[in-house]
Every structure is written in C-alpha cells, then in structure tokens.
Design a protein that fits this description.
It is found in: Membrane. It is a single-pass type I membrane protein. It catalyses: L-threonyl-[protein] + ATP = O-phospho-L-threonyl-[protein] + ADP + H(+); L-seryl-[protein] + ATP = O-phospho-L-seryl-[protein] + ADP + H(+). InterPro entries: Bulb-type_lectin_dom, G-type_lectin_kinases/EP1-like, Prot_kinase_dom, Protein_kinase_ATP_BS, Ser/Thr_kinase_AS, SRK-like_kinase. This is Receptor-like serine/threonine-protein kinase. This protein has about 800 residues and is of the alpha+beta class. It folds into six domains: about 1-25 and about 165-295, Bulb-type lectin domain (Agglutinin, subunit A, Orthogonal Prism); about 30-155, Orthogonal Prism (Agglutinin, subunit A), CATH 2.90.10.10; about 320-440, no CATH class; about 450-485; about 495-595, Phosphorylase Kinase, domain 1; about 600-810, Orthogonal Bundle (Transferase(Phosphotransferase), domain 1). Helices cover about 25% and strands about 25% of the residues. The protein is built from 18 helices and 44 strands. Strands 35-39-40-38-37-36 form a six-stranded mixed sheet, with helices on both faces. A five-stranded antiparallel sheet has the order 28-34-31-32-30, covered by helices on one side. It has a four-stranded antiparallel sheet with strand order 1-6-7-8, with no helix packed on it. Strand 21 and strand 22 (about 270-275) form a beta hairpin. It starts with 14 loop residues before the first helix and ends with a helix. The model is unreliable at about 1-35, about 280-285, about 440-505, about 670-680 and about 805-810 (pLDDT under 50).
Length: about 800
C-alpha cells in the first residue's frame, strides 16, 4: 500500500498542479442525450434475460440468479464473461423467480413479490417525483427529475464495491459479503467516519453493529472524501481538496481496463483490474480480475485483527495464515475439525473428549502436546508465567484441565483456554504452540486401534450412551411440560400476547422477562413526563442491547390506545425512525422495547462541547425531516409524534438522525386530518394550538421541527436566559430579527463552515420561520419542508410569526 501524507515537503510545490489534475480526472455530468431512459411503467422480471443497460452496454441493471430460484436485483459488468456484480439492492432478502422491479407511475422504483404484492425494497427519493431512471456508463444507476437532477443514485448507497468516478463521503460504508458464494452481509465494514477517519471494522455478526477497528487511516479531523478517480487512483482527501492518504495508485488506465475496489468477505479492501480487450495477448493480462498487489488494506489480515470480543480473522479454535496470493487461509489445529467444511470461517471444534477436571491428575497420561511453530492465539490467555523452561510449560498445561494450548516463547509460558481466538500463523511471531490432544483420539471402527486403548474407548462409548439416554428422557419430559403449558397456561397468557395485528411482527415480552433483561430496571437511560427508559440486554443474545420504556400510570391506564399505538409503530420501517422490537402488555404493565442507539441523543452533541460541525447538522436536519415526512404521509396509519426535540433525536455511529420516543404519539385514522387531545410535548417546542384547546394536526410536529431547525442552525437552546443581550434570549425572536434585518450571519458567527455556506443557512432560517407560524394553515407540510431543504422547491419570504412567542412563554 502506498501512503502519501500532505505534510510531506515534496508535495507542497506541486499541490496546485495536483489539484488541477484531480479536477480534470473527474467525470463531467452525463447529458440527457447519453441516457437510455427508463420511463415510469417499465419493469423487469426475475428469470428473464432482460436488463436495463448503459449506453455503451458496459454495465447492466437487472436480476442475476445467485442460488437455485434465488435472485439479486443488481448492477454488473456486462461485457465480461463473469458478469461481476458491483451493487445489489436485496443482498439479505433474495427474491424468487417471477418477482419484479418496476419504475412505478408515481416515479418510485420498487422491488416486489408479484404473487403477493409485497414490497421487498424501494429506492428512497424522499417523496420527490421521478421522471426517469437510467443506467450510466460509470456503473451508476440513477433516478432523476425532468431537469436531470439525480434524486437517488446507487453510487450513494454502495454495498461492497466502489467504481471509478465514485466518491465515498463521511458516513458512507461498505459491508463485506458473507462468503465468496454468499453475497449477504458478512463480518466486516469499511467506513469514512464523521470525524474524518477512514476505518475498517469487524462487525458483531450477525448484528450489523461495529465491534473492533483493525485498520485506520489516522486522519481524525481531516478526512473529508474518499475518491476513486477516473485515472484509477483511490485516495482520501481533505475538505480543501488536498490529498491525505493514497490507498491505491499506479493502476493501468481506465480506458483499457475495468476497475473495481471491493471489501471482500475476508475483510480486505482490494483494487482489481480487468482488461477490456477480449484478446489476452494484446492486453497483456489473463481474462480474469487481477488484484493490484500493492493496493490492498490491511496488508496482512491475519495479524491485523486482534480483538477482545470476537474470533479474529478466522473462526474460534482455528488459525489464519497468509497464502502466496496474499489471501487468508483458515485451518484447524491438530485434533480439531471444521464446524462446517463449507463455511470454514465458522471455526473448529475438538474431535476428542476434553480433560476431566475432577480427575485431572489421573488423566494427565491420557493427553499429549503436539507442537506447531510460529502459531499463536493472542488474548485467549488464562495464565502467564515468565522465566520458565519449555518442559515446565508442557507439564503445567498437561496437569491443568482448563489449558487447551500453551504458547512458549523466550522463556514465557501462556496457557490458553477454549474457545481459542485471534488464531494466526506468522513466521515473525516465533515461539511455538503446544496443542493438547487426547492420545486415544482415534476412530473405534479403525482396525489399527491399539488394544491398550480399548478400555478407554469403551468407557467413552458407554458414557455417550448414558448421556444419550438421559438426553432422550429429558426431551420427553420437556415435551410433556410444553404440552401442559399449551393446554393450560397458554390460554391465560394469550390475553397478553395478542394486542397487535397479525401483520405486525413484534415480540411480546412478559414483565418478568423485561425485569431480568434490565437487571430489575437498574440502569436508567432517561426519563420524561410519560415514561422512564432503562438499558437492557435480551436473554436470547447477550450482545443485543435494548432500551426498555416503562410507561407511567396515566399511559398504562389507556390500554386501548396503547394497543393501537403499538400496532401503528410496529408497522413503521424507515432508516430515520427507531425500531420497535417488542412490547409488554401484562396486567397493569405497559412497556415498549426499542433498539438501543448507542451514540445517545442530539442534545448531548448539539449543546455540549465540542459541538457538531455544520455538515453533520445539515445531515441530521435532512434525516429528521424525512423521518417526519414518513410518519405523516407514508405510514398506513398517520402518526403525529407530538414531542420532537433534541432529546428525542438519537444518533447512530455514523451520526444518522433517528427519531425516537413514540410513547406519546397520537394516531390519526384514515378519514381523520385532526384530533383532540390533552397537551403533549415539551416546553419550548409545543405549537400554539395546544394552548387554544383547538384540534391538533400533523402541523404541531412541523412547528416543533421549526424550533429544532433553529437550534441546529445556531447550535444553542431555544431559550437561554443567561445570555448578555436579552434580545437573544428567545432563539425564535432573535432568528426572525436577524432575518428581517439581513443579519443572519450573526446566528452562525463562530461557525466557519456555516459562514462559508451562508446561502444555505439563510434558506434554512427561512424554512424554520415558515414552520413556526402561529397559524397552522400557514405552516408547510413535512413533505414540502423536505423538498425545500433539498432545493427541489423554492423557499419564499416568510411572514412575521407574530404572536407565536406568547404561547411559548405561557407554557
């Protein structure tokens, strides 16, 4: 890997020239004439050979069969025999023969089950109307407006691959496939973090949460964009366009070779090239994808991954070695075999009976230690001894029933316990692994079993028969017990397990289960007017952390409303809404179980120190707007959130905004546009109509969003009595005064990034003022707010919000 840092002196004189060359290397926007339009109404069917091709035919969009009757909606290189996939929509949810993707009449691109009419995937265009779709020669599939502005691009939502001309912005990520034959999400993630650091992570598989980093560009505070330019170079650049780190260079020209960079299933990011010429002699390359040997990270995956939680580059009880092709090979140590020979990364198991701890001294003679040089399992230690001999180390492990392997190196002895993790073979490690194996580890059916081993073999077989008998008896008892439960207790429990509709897939918890999950409601995450939230761990997977919301008595008493809200919230499915996992509706107990978003809420970052930069705040603004637009207009049941504020906006590890706290949400029936209810919400964010005893609509959320938007713009609370200038005490007052007087710059005076983006700041302030109009009819819908934020709809000059402040002060 070639790494080039901007601080290197020889780059300075050429920085201007370099920037000019980088700009020249970028693609010019495709003109409308170069598109092959896909117009609304057109569709493709899984199993047909039809596809939507780019003008040159080099890329195609359509279905590829990856398993028997299993199809991916994908983009692939179309002029090479391999038809290599570079993007897919449904990698974790293969569709069957006959399913379709269609550009609907309303402009939405939807993948659906044609027999059941069930939607499987769709491209999120935030409600904007799409005029056409196109497969471009860059490998980018786009959905565009009439003016050729792209509303959605596959380049912005990559799976595991990057292509020339593609950029990788902060918050973007690649997720490796599970294996070479299975494209579903696997164990590794490549991301450009919001702090500017480019990082490779292991994932807490099968969850998609990150576990441990194993490579980093070490560019915190500097990295802004990863660029794969048309010259075939991949590099990380700063915000001002200067190069920080070169990931891959010296590649053959893109005019003669296809290029792709892929995070492969083994956790390595590799840059591959393929000759466009079908004559291998003319191209000088074989007809296959060839990795650029100096352009992959990390250079040795076997030694790079070393984590406390997790198995390492290969599975538990296995070890990783680097082959001649620089790809990792997973192997089992002597005495062990693969759990699944078809999936070697699942790890290995012992193929012998472990040492009996109650008779360890008598069983010492039944085991021996097999030696393997330069092999280690770091971080699996049970004990460590120094200044000892190898013979002492051997005896110590043989007499210890917990010792599975001993590592001896330079007078040090490390005892290792099961399961062994982070296994690796590396000549640079030195030392040796002493692997404990039972001497009678032979198949009793073999003719060459030594006669003096028969007694041990008979004892083992007899023990297994006894264990099998006991296991069968236990299974019979367990079945009888379950039958009793089903006949008796099940009828009673049914009262608590069916408050939701059949189409809502939520888990119903008992109160005792949630008591156990939260350690008797020990760790409080937060509390509000209607509920207290506790941290919990689900018993079926100790690494699944959840937020358990215990609703107070006033909410608990409204059982009918609780059931309705669980039904509605359970149907929501949007990347900017927190996911409801389950509920408890038992006796007087009403609890909701949500996924736990570990980065906390927006208030901690917006009002704390250091504060969020302008670009992250913009991204959060778009996320909240899209989430509310979904609640108001795209749900089967329209939902009014009623309490939009920074404390209810959670942030994930990539600082994506996730709306939470539906505990006081209000639902509207299909024929309703407004409802009457008691005041809900938080001081400072509550719309004026709450205080006038008027019916409320979705516009109350628009009002709260307006206040939140002002806070995001100015990075301060909506009411701050400590400020020196009392005219700035109420943020909404001050913001309108600044807008009216043409001094919006005062709102972001200490924010350099925002000052450089003043046109957008002014637009956002105008949108916020429209949102906080006292008259709800003057406020835009969240759909229009989203379109104004994105620039699709022009923002007209807002009127004076007039008396809206009186309602704030009276609350």
């Amino acid at each position: 890997m070639k790494v080039v840092f901007h601080v290197m002196a020889f780059l300075v004189p050429y920085s201007s020239s370099l920037l000019f060359l980088v700009i020249l290397a970028q693609p010019f926007p495709a003109t409308a004439e170069s598109y092959k339009y896909i117009t609304p109404g057109l569709s493709l069917t899984a199993s047909s050979n039809d596809s939507w091709q780019s003008p040159s035919g080099e890329f195609a969009f359509g279905f590829q069969q990856v398993v028997d009757d299993g199809f991916l909606l994908a983009i692939w290189f179309n002029k090479i025999p391999e038809k290599t996939i570079v993007w897919s929509a449904n990698r974790n949810n293969l569709v069957q023969r006959g399913d379709k993707v269609k550009l609907m009449e309303d402009g939405q691109l939807v993948l659906y089950n044609d027999r059941k009419g069930k939607q499987i995937w769709r491209a999120d265009t935030a409600g904007s109307r799409v005029a056409y779709a196109a497969m471009l020669d860059s490998g980018n599939f786009v959905l565009a407006r009439h003016d050729s502005v792209n509303l959605w691009e596959s380049f912005r939502e990559p799976t595991d691959t990057l292509l020339p001309t593609q950029t990788f912005s902060q918050g973007s990520k690649l997720v490796a496939g599970y294996s070479s034959m299975n494209s579903s999400t696997g164990r590794y993630q490549f991301t450009l973090q919001s702090d500017g650091n480019l990082v490779l992570y292991t994932l807490a598989f099968p969850l998609d949460s990150v576990n441990s980093p194993y490579w980093s560009s070490e560019t915190e505070g500097n990295g802004f964009l990863l660029r794969f330019n048309q010259s075939g170079n991949i590099y990380l650049e700063a915000k001002n366009g200067t190069m920080l780190v070169m990931i891959s260079s010296d590649a053959p020209t893109t005019s003669d070779f296809y290029h792709r960079a892929i995070l492969e299933y083994d956790g390595v990011l590799r840059h591959y090239v393929y000759p466009k010429s079908m004559n291998p002699g003319a191209a000088g390359w074989p007809l296959r994808w060839s990795p650029l040997t100096s352009s992959f990270i990390p250079p040795n995956i076997c030694t790079s991954i070393r984590e406390n939680n997790g198995c390492g580059a290969c599975g538990f009880n296995s070890y990783c070695s680097l082959g001649h092709d620089q790809k990792p090979k997973c192997s089992c140590p002597p005495g062990y075999t693969f759990l699944d020979p078809n999936d070697v990364m699942k790890g290995c198991k012992q193929n012998f009976v472990s040492q009996n701890c109650e008779e360890a001294s008598q069983e010492t003679e039944l085991f021996y230690l097999e030696q393997k040089e330069n092999t280690d399992w770091p971080l699996s230690d049970s004990e460590h001894f120094s200044i000892v001999t190898e013979e002492w180390c051997r005896k110590a492990c043989l007499s210890d029933c917990f010792c599975a392997v001993a590592i001896f190196r330079d007078g040090n002895c490390w005892k290792k316990k099961i399961p062994l993790s982070n296994g690796r073979f590396d000549p640079r490690d030195g030392g040796k692994a002493l692997i404990k194996i039972r001497k009678d580890n032979l198949n009793p059916a073999d003719d060459d079993v030594p006669k003096n081993k028969n007694r041990s073999t008979i004892i083992i077989i007899g023990s297994l028969l006894v264990i099998s008998s006991v296991s069968l008896n236990f299974l019979f008892i367990l079945r009888a017990f379950l039958d009793v439960l089903q006949f008796g207790y099940g009828k009673t429990k049914k009262l608590y397990l069916e408050p939701t509709d059949p189409g809502v897939t939520l888990r119903s918890f008992t109160f005792s289960e949630l008591e156990k999950a939260t350690s008797n409601f020990k760790e409080e995450l937060g509390s509000g007017a209607f509920a207290t939230v506790y941290k919990g761990t689900l018993d079926f997977d100790e690494r699944t952390f959840v937020a358990v919301k215990n609703l107070d008595k006033m909410v608990r008493d409204c059982e009918k409303e609780f059931k309705a809200e669980v039904n509605a919230i359970g149907r929501t499915n949007h990347k900017n809404l927190v996911k409801l996992l389950g509920f408890c509706n038992e006796g007087e107990h009403r609890l909701l179980v949500y996924e736990l978003i570990r980065n906390g809420n927006l208030a901690n970052f917006l009002f704390g120190n250091p504060r969020l930069n302008w670009f992250k705040r913009m991204r959060i603004t778009f996320g909240v707007a899209r989430g509310l637009f979904y609640l108001h207009e795209e749900c089967s049941t329209q939902i009014i959130h009623c309490d939009i504020k920074p404390q209810n906006i959670l942030l994930d590890e990539s600082f994506r905004a996730i709306i939470s706290d539906f505990g006081i949400a209000k639902l509207l029936k299909a024929d309703q546009t407004r409802t009457s209810t008691a005041i809900r919400g938080t001081k400072g964010y509550v719309a004026p109509e709450w205080f006038k005893n008027l019916p409320v609509t979705v516009k109350v959320d628009v009002y709260s969003f307006g206040i939140l938007l002002l806070e995001l713009i100015c990075c301060r609370k909506n009411f701050e009595p400590q400020v020196k200038d009392e005219d700035q005490m109420v943020l909404a007052y001050w913001a309108y005064d600044c807008y009216r007087d043409g001094k919006v710059g005062l709102l972001v005076a200490n924010d350099e990034d925002a000052v450089l983006d003043m046109k957008r700041v002014v637009k956002f302030v105008m949108i916020a003022i429209w949102c906080i109009q006292e008259d709800p009819s003057l406020r835009p819908t969240m759909k229009k707010v989203t379109l104004m934020l994105e620039g699709t709809v022009e923002v007209s000059a807002p009127p004076d919000p007039s008396s809206f402040i009186s309602s704030i002060e009276s609350f």
